[in-house]
Every structure is written in structure tokens, then in C-alpha cells.
Amino acid sequence: MSGNPTAEVEFDETDLELLEYIESDFDVSLETLAEQLDLSKSAVHYRLNKLKESGVVTGITADLDSLAFGLDMVALTEVSVVHERGYSEEFAEELGAVDGVEQVYYTMGDVDFVLVVRVQDRDQMNGVIDDIIAIEGVEQTSSRFVMDEHRPDEGVVSNLPDAATDVLLDN
User: Fold this and answer.
1) Domain span holding position 35
2) 170 lies in some domain
3) How many CA atoms lie within 13 A of 26 on its CB side?
């Protein structure tokens, strides 16, 4: 999340509407998008390519259900580390390489990193924590176990605050 690689991208309402459609279902056909947006298929194709080339659309992925793999134990693990010049990138890379670590956030405040860890059972969770504390420079960890997940719509565009949409459209 360093910097803002798409700071110079200019959006219009149609771009945002297109992004909302593909974010909820990337498998949607050009015909369907053209019909929904009241555009030609070539116009939709052009806009999609422009959004890919500018780095707004970064890839095509499948959303997999972690529960289908039995990964229903989730912990939010806080990690404090030794502070040395340039430490955040190095530690983020090492923490992210630990099997079971799903997300790594570099934070400011009482802890340096917050990790989302997802595993099948306590033995695996202990293994992840052991791997984390084995990283040279990790001083302390603290984990909070998730009792229930409430997943709002995970879409970026559909969850934009009105003020953020206004900023994007004013470019």
C-alpha cells in the first residue's frame, strides 16, 4: 500500500460503474457489460484495457472459500520487532512468507505489524506462531482469535465513501 500508483488515473462515472460490475463478477461477458452500461462491446473492451494498463485492474483471480479447505481458525496477530533502518519492508516480506499468514499490515502505534493468520487447527496455529517468533528481530507477538467472521461486501468500488467517489470524479 505504499504510494499511490494510480494517482494520475482519471475516472468517470462509467469507469466506476464498470469496475463495480467486474469486481463483483469478473466472469461477466462483454455483451452483458455493454448492455448494463449502455455502451458498445468495443467501448467496454477499450475501457477495460485502459484500466488494466493504468494499474487499476491488477489481475484476474478466483475467490476461493477458505472454509472449503477447513481453514476456519483465524487469528489477528500483533507483532513487535526491532527497529532498524528500512525494517518495515524486510519484516513484512519475512512475515508474509510464513505459511498460514494471509495478510500483513505495517502499522503505527503500539505494535509494528498486524497479521491475519488462517489455519485449520491449534497445532497449525502454534506452528505459525513458532515460525513468526523464529524470525530474527521479532520481539513479541500477541494474538486475538476470531470467533465469527462478518464479511461485508468486499468490493473496493461498491464500498467507496461518497467523498472518495467525488474526489475520483473531480480529477
Assistant:
1) 13-62
2) no
3) 11
